[in-house]
Design brief:
Blueprint: H1 7-20, E1 26-30, H2 36-44, E2 49-52, H3 55-64, E3 72-75, H4 84-90, E4 93-97, H5 100-113, E5 118-122, H6 136-141, H7 143-146, E6 153-158, H8 167-190, E7 196-202, H9 209-215, E8 219-222, H10 224-227
Helix pairs in contact: 1-2, 4-5, 8-9
Length: 231
Amino acid sequence: MTETVDAPGIAQRLAQLRQELPPSVKLIAVSKTRSAEHVRAAYAAGQRDFGENRVQEAMEKQAQLTDLTDITWHLIGQLQSNKARKAVETFDWIHSVDSLKLADRINRISKECDRCPKICFQVKHRSDPSKTGLEPQDLLTAIPRICEYHHIQVEGLMTIPPLSSSDANALKIFQENRELAELITTEAKRLGCTNMAMKQLSMGMSGDYSLAVQAGSTLVRLGQTIFGARG
């Protein structure tokens, strides 16, 4: 059965979010598991950034939306190494680079494909068996290695607090992520590294985005808040 698309509701919720979010925060509409028609409805309401979890699903959606030429596609789900080439070809942003090995592969493939995707390193600030990510200290230690990536643009950091986090703990994790980005920026500048802007913090989903914005998020990833609950 085809899921009904509430285009007026989507437009209204997007308008409310644009009033609520500061100008420094980019809104990514998480369209994973939603139809291409949901994307069209959000697009008609002015939305241009869309987030997908799976490479294949995004490719299928893009094939139905070839007339919408100015969409920016963000991969926000875990990326398996064997899907890296398709991800580089499909997405403008990859938020979920959760290992240096994956970053190495994306950099190499980007050179081969003549692409330069924007990436965020996914950081794991707390123990959480359901999440992947780099440890903060490992990322700091790897800065010289990352400086050698000439075919990707390292834009910043992404993090997701454990599902069980209280508001206070989630806020602390978001703040730690911002502080880590600042540390990396300082060290990268000291080393003369030019491919690590570290200006973006991909933090905050439908349940905690207000806390993430409070902590300095510049990219929030919202699905149900935009598209509504499923019928």
